[in-house]
Amino acid sequence: MTSHTDPRALGEFLKARRAQLDPGDCGLPEADTPRRVAGLRREEVARLAAISVDYYTRLEQGRVRASAPVLATLVRALRLDDDQQSYLYELAGRTDDRPRRRRSVQQVRPAMRRLLDQLTGTPALVLGRRLDILAWNPAAVALYTDFAELPAGRRNYLRLMFTDPAIREMHREWRHDARDAVAALRMEAAAGPADPELDALVTQLSARDADFRTWWAEHRVNSATYGTKQYRHPLVGDLTLDCDTWSGSDGSGQRLMVLTAEAGTPSHDALRILTSWTPERADAGPARG
């Protein structure tokens, strides 16, 4: 499906963008005569994009609709960044034709790491794309498991919910929590670009678990950033914890998930006992997973 196209707005954007570019930065030779316009001339953009001057002129005048290959060459010729590329394809009505960027390796943001390091008495995780567990603190190790001992491919919140018997058993309301996690992943799949790793995760869990297959097929979505989780921990018994999630503002998709208990409650006392037990494995460095 393509978006609404506005040839005149596209032409205005092309004119504005070429006026912002310095010919020398684009590898063009210095002109013998002073330029009458700022930035690049139409014929220079056409040369850089390997299209005819007449065709490019008609693009700027809104008299022709740009093809996907032409848009790709204009991206390079006009040195557009990611936001400008999105805007170009939107104006041209060809959002579906925009090349998908290769997903970068997920790295924990420094600000997220600092927050995690400062949360010493409450379990906290940094979740990335696909609900991958990117980092954790010692309290999260005490509550859940030693994530450092897991293979990197298993450090995924949803995968552990469905495939780790101990994690599954610990959730007193497992069906509710697992269904919410599936809905959160479904929302990410709908909102983001194509992600082969997410597709692989869905395929694997669908083949393994009938509940996952059913819930994924429901197309239920969930963007809740808070809730309550009921746990039964083998060391301290039942816990009722508030779960709050804060998203980063940089577009990385990273979220800080924090679990707390209301002061004066049995869960608060049990959580204090649990987090006072810090495994030696976690002392080597919280959030270094």
Report mean pLDDT, rounded to a whole number. 85
Residues in β-strands, percent: 5-15%
Instruction: Name the overall outline.
Output: elongated
Distance between the termini: 40 Å
Note poorly predicted spans: 280-289
| Relative helix content | 40-55%
Question: If you had to describe this structure to a student in words, what would you say it looks like?
Answer:
The longest helix is centred in the middle third of the chain and has 18 residues, at 174-191. A 5-stranded antiparallel sheet has the order 2-1-5-4-3. The model is unreliable at 280-289 (pLDDT under 50). With 289 residues, it is an alpha+beta fold. The protein starts with 6 loop residues before the first helix and ends in a 6-residue tail after the last helix. The protein has 14 helices and 5 strands.
Summarize the structure.
With 289 residues, the chain is α+β, with helices and mostly antiparallel strands.
Identify the notable features of this structure and list them briefly:
289 residues; alpha+beta; 14 helices; 46% helix; elongated
